[in-house]
Hints:
The chain is of the alpha/beta class. It has helices at residues 19-46, 81-93, 127-139, 160-177, 199-215, 236-245, and strands at residues 9-10, 13-14, 57-59, 62-65, 70-75, 105-106, 113-119, 150-154, 181-187, 218-225, 248-256, 262-272, 281-285. The longest helix is centred in the first third of the chain and has 28 residues, at 19-46.
Amino acid sequence: MFDIPAPSTQNGFPISAPHNLQSGVESQQVKLARLLESQKKIKENKGKPINFSQPILWQKDNPVFFPKTINVIQGKAGVHKSRLAETICAALLKIPESNRDLLDFKTNILTRYAVCYVDTERNLSDQLPYSLQQIQLKAGYNIQDHPYGFDYISLLEFGREERFDMLNIYLEHIRKQFPMHIFIVLDVITDCVFNFNDTKDSMKLIDMMNQSINRYDVTFICLIHENPGSTDKARGHLGTEILNKASTVMQIGFEKDAQNHNTDLLKVTYLKCGVPKNMNRFLYSILMKKRD
Length: 292
């Protein structure tokens, strides 16, 4: 038989637990409540027939992106990753009257999407505005238009240590602005964290995206550079982890000729995608003006 000590008292009254201990218990209770709430949602969905989500975007008749997923475009510097992202964004924003060919990308014309472009690299005077103009023109708008559902920001003027917090603030803002599915482009994702080689920084961003796609009606497409040289690996620890989490991974690069020289064609390869095997790659010409 164990002797159980009586509670400590002061002037006949029990001494309450220290404030930090109480806070710790409350924090545990809050976390447990969140855990049980997610369990409740899982249980509700488990008890119903599962209706799998329809794709957001097709290339010809093959599904490319699905809602509430994380997706990646990777490639070396200078291979037009952002141009490919422009075309994808234009397909999501395209007006029904437009007959512009967008590399056979298409979406459900009866469904509206919001596109939110987060840029980290290009200047604010001409490079980024020109890219945004191209999205609108490809989608059938004029450059003077301000289409509802097309939003954009630059993190260029914020230090790397601030960018994760600013991205979080922006995502919370647009989620309240647009009552529709939101397609978020991070160009480039390695600039959204302080250190893309740091495990903690990398997982903090990926966890935030995973929480967002589970809680809200959003989809991410993340642009990332490959390491210089002959390797095709996406940069840093963040590159390794984001490819593990991604549903669709597209790689873009120049098609080589017989002498292994770059041609005027860009090759897009699906490294990871739940689509038929005959959709492993497609080619398209670079029909874009070179800028000085």
